[in-house]
Amino acid sequence: MDAWIPTLLHWLALPEFGLSTVFVIALISATLLPMGSEPAVVGLLQLRPDLFWPAILVATAGNTLGGMISWWLGRMAHQAHQAWQATHPAAAAKAAAMHPQRSRHKQLAHAWLVRWGAKTCLLSWLPIVGDPLCAVAGWLRLPFWACCGYMAIGKFLRYVLMTSAAMWALG
User: What mean pLDDT is predicted for residues 47-73?
Assistant: First the structure.
């Protein structure tokens, strides 16, 4: 596992690859794949502290784009589900009968998402729930550009705070 760290640090140290590597890692980590981008940002900044704001902005852009990909996947899944229900009404009715009532937690989460709308995407930076939240926003057909803006704000603030704290801790 530790064998890839020197290679990653080498790529991050190259001026022509450092920021693009951060972008790709941030984009991938914002999808439903379990990966974190903060180590890549902090690694780059350990090697090139002068790139603090460019690294924050590039990571924010990549992470926001990844969140919007998840939003789009949620939207496409909803459309596919609706198409399936329209073409298979008996199977859809049977599936609905098997799960007549959502759990209380699911009901509360759905009500909360509907009530707050695109603003819930401010929380897309949260571990575990943030990435699925983007997909659910797409499923619920929350407005694309509003979700994108709120995601960007939340992710930007996360990168500024977490990267600053990590850089301070590393001295």
Answer: 95
The answer on pLDDT for 91 being more than 60 is: yes
Q: Among candidates 36, 32, 25, 35, which has minimal Cα distance to 62?
A: 25
Gap between the terminal Cα atoms of the chain = 26
Can you say whether the dihedral through the CA atoms of 12, 14, 15, 21 is positive or negative?
negative
> What is the rounded distance in angstroms from the CA atom of residue 74 to the CA atom of residue 58?
24
CB 58 within 8 A of CB 19: yes
Task: Tell me how far the alpha carbon of residue 130 is from its chain's centroid.
Answer: 6
Across the chain, how many H-helices and E-strands are there?
A: 8, 0
Residue ranges of the alpha helices (H) in 14-103? 18-29, 38-47, 52-87, 89-98
Who has greater pLDDT, 78 or 34? Answer: 78
Show the tokens assigned to 165: 């704290």
Nearest to 123 by CA among 150, 149, 161: 150
Q: What's the pTM?
A: 0.82
